[in-house]
């Protein structure tokens, strides 16, 4: 990067555009709602009372700040860069997702909405949404693909225990994109009383910017923590990407620090060349879906193609529009990790650090395995440990159970 | 003069209201579509909305969503739609055809390419569900310069201020979405519709056509009393879905559903 540009605060523009990405591609019935949401969010951003409440719940309810932990054994294991883990998996509900849910539910309350809906893939956003809905006494409906319900049973049960109604989505491929379609259909039907908590930095404006802002607490904390520990900024940041909210949350506060390298890791599935993957930037093309223009997995006719990943949370054929823009600007490097590489890194993290990461997070760790050994110990590398892997026990047992003498869970 | 404008001006002179059927192109298979279009005209269609199938039709209910799935499974592509319209035009040069669908398949082949092809085969209007006027700056002029009407939606949630903007952008006719929800979801309330149409009359001379929730002759006639046109989709597509094992009977069924509406509206 050699052109000085304020990457962090000027975008999106008033129309929700990051360059040519983003925007508001929704049917007219929803258009007035997202314009209202934009106005309300603008007010909340500069409302000290809203910010005070947000800080309170982030602290006492979510458990922030999350630690920035020096992963000494992992560092030794790879024998290169000093690896720091931003411990988002220690948040209440076990992932970064709740950072955003707390923000949006406070906004829903402020707007007088009486009902919460959300889509979920792996179930982490569904659990986080069901959690905040319970905390604020709002009825909650979660749309989840039938395929995902099958492979994420523990999270389905958690959502139900939290009082949410989980509606299986069988249309299309029964995964995250179809759950999002159904949630949008619910919203368009129940426009008067319902707040739609989108779980990632995608969807029509203002969602990509709003979710990013709520997740940016990750990067702001990392910055302060690294300055306190080492007296300087990290050299590189690594995060996994489905829609891209944990990555953007970590990256965004560093975008103007051009010496900080950023690496986003997409789900490579069986390999980007195999066609069975969820790597929208590495294996997709620009198009319009779910309210925004971004990189998509699509065929030559513009029909959306199924994503594939071992991790349900990355199994989405699109990516947040700001990532699409950062990709074209060259500010962030986007790579991919395969299912097998993620499974390998998953085990290394378990055994070296005593931390069971989410399969999503394991994709970021897989990139660390490739990159860290080539770098000197002075290189400070921060990995967003975006979620814990308890929910993935069934999937992992399916792939690795035999190795450990364990049958299907 | 664009065929849509021509048709509405004829209807106005005759004191009749437009009947506008929607079917998804390629459902249940591409070879049936042109025959269905002619059958609809025979039964009294004034304009035909031809759906462009899309894998993720977010504003549609299960009926049209499944129609899209069937059409895509049969390999229906945008280029096939163009051929269908071309074939239709060989024997019908007067009934306006509007392509209705989502933006991505159009964006994929390129706006200019799309507009060129549509104009050359005899398409008259384009309604892109997930493209509000705010996002139409690029494609709008390309449609206009080829005399393709850009048709927009107005919803019950639309404020008067927004409606005025939409009216200023709209061409052909204004598609008023009669209820909050997806296509095929519920039955509309004609009084409610009339109340929402009243302020639009003061904003535009465009014909006001109403869609979503029109199931039969009774609802069609009620809407025809307050609107300039009646749009019917899911009620027709339902017939297709119910007759997949006897596709040769579908054209006749579509005809009878539409003819009932025509009779009720003209009574």
UniProtKB/TrEMBL annotation, chain B:
Q: Which controlled-vocabulary keywords does the entry list?
A: Amino-acid biosynthesis, Aromatic amino acid biosynthesis, Lyase, Tryptophan biosynthesis
Q: GO MF terms on file?
A: tryptophan synthase activity
Subunit structure and binding partners: Tetramer of two alpha and two beta chains.
Q: Which PROSITE patterns does this UniProt record tie to the protein?
A: TRP_SYNTHASE_ALPHA
The pathway that the record names for this protein is: Amino-acid biosynthesis; L-tryptophan biosynthesis; L-tryptophan from chorismate: step 5/5
Name the protein family.
Belongs to the TrpA family.
Q: Where is the active site?
A: 49 (proton acceptor), 60 (proton acceptor)
> Would you tell me the Gene Ontology cellular component terms?
cytosol
Q: Which reaction does it catalyse?
A: (1S,2R)-1-C-(indol-3-yl)glycerol 3-phosphate + L-serine = D-glyceraldehyde 3-phosphate + L-tryptophan + H2O
Identify the stretch annotated as signal peptide in this record.
none
Protein EC: 4.2.1.20
Q: State the function annotated in the UniProt record.
A: The alpha subunit is responsible for the aldol cleavage of indoleglycerol phosphate to indole and glyceraldehyde 3-phosphate.
* Membrane-traversing stretches: none
What is the originating organism of this protein? Vreelandella maris
Name of the featured protein: Tryptophan synthase alpha chain
Top EC class for this record: lyase
Please tell me whether the keyword Nuclease is annotated for this protein. no
């Amino acid at each position: 990067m050699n052109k000085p540009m304020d990457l962090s605060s000027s975008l999106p523009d008033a129309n929700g555009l990051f360059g040519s990405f983003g925007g508001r591609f929704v049917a007219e019935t929803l258009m007035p709602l997202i314009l209202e949401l934009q106005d309300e969010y603008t007010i909340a951003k500069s409302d000290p009372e809203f910010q005070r409440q947000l800080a309170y719940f982030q602290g006492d309810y979510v458990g922030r700040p999350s630690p920035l932990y020096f992963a000494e054994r992992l560092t030794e294991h790879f024998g290169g860069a000093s690896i720091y883990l931003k411990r988002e998996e220690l948040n209440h509900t076990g992932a970064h997702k709740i950072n955003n849910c707390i923000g949006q539910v406070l906004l829903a309350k402020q707007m007088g909405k009486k009902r919460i809906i959300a889509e979920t893939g792996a179930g982490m956003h569904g659990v986080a949404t069901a959690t905040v809905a319970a905390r604020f006494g709002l009825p909650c409906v979660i749309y989840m693909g039938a395929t995902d319900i099958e492979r994420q049973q523990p999270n389905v049960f958690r959502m139900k225990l939290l009082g949410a109604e989980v509606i299986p989505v069988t249309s299309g491929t029964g995964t995250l994109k179809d759950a999002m379609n159904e949630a949008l259909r619910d919203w368009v039907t129940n426009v008067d009383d319902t707040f739609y908590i989108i779980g990632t930095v995608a969807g029509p404006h203002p969602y990509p910017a709003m979710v990013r802002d709520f997740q940016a607490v990750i990067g702001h904390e990392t910055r302060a923590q690294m300055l306190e520990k080492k007296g300087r900024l990290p050299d590189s940041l690594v995060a996994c990407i489905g829609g891209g909210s944990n990555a953007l949350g970590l990256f965004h506060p560093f975008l103007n620090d051009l010496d900080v390298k950023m690496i986003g890791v997409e789900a490579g599935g069986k390999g980007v060349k195999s066609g069975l993957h969820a790597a929208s930037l590495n294996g997709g093309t620009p198009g319009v879906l779910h309210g925004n223009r971004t990189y998509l997995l699509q065929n030559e006719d513009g029909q959306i193609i199924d994503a594939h990943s071992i991790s349900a949370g990355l199994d989405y054929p699109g990516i947040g529009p700001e990532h699409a823009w950062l990709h074209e600007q060259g500010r962030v490097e986007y790579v991919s990790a395969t299912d097998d590489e993620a499974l390998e890194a998953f085990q290394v993290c378990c055994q070296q650090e005593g931390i069971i990461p989410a399969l999503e997070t394991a994709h970021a760790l897989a990139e660390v395995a490739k990159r860290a050994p080539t770098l000197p110990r002075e290189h400070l590398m921060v990995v967003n440990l975006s979620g814990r892997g308890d929910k993935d026990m069934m999937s992992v047992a399916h792939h690795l159970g035999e190795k450990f003498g364990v049958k299907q869970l | 003069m664009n065929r849509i404008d021509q048709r509405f001006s004829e209807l106005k002179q005759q004191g009749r209201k437009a009947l506008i059927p929607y079917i998804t192109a390629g459902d249940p298979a591409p070879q049936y579509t042109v025959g269905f279009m002619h059958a609809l005209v025979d039964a009294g269609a004034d304009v035909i909305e031809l759906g462009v199938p899309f894998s993720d039709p977010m504003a549609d209910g299960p009926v049209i969503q499944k129609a899209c799935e069937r059409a895509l499974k049969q390999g229906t592509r945008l280029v096939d739609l163009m051929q269908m319209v071309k074939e239709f035009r060989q024997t019908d040069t007067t009934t306006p055809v509007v392509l209705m669908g989502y933006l991505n398949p159009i964006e994929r082949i390129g706006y200019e390419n799309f507009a060129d092809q549509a104009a050359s085969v005899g398409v008259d209007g384009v309604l892109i569900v997930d493209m509000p006027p705010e996002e139409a700056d690029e494609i709008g002029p390309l449609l206009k310069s080829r005399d393709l009407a850009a048709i927009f939606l107005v919803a019950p949630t639309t404020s008067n201020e927004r409606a005025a903007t939409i009216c200023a952008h709209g061409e052909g006719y204004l598609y008023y979405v009669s209820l909050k929800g997806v296509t095929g979801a519920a039955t509309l309330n004609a009084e409610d519709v009339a109340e929402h149409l009243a302020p639009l009359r003061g904003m535009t001379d465009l014909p006001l056509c109403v869609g979503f929730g029109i199931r039969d002759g009774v609802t069609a006639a009620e809407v025809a009393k307050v609107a300039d046109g009646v749009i019917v989709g899911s009620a027709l597509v339902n017939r297709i879905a119910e007759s997949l094992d006897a596709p040769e009977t579908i054209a006749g069924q579509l005809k009878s559903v539409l003819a009932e509406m025509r009779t009720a509206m003209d009574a």
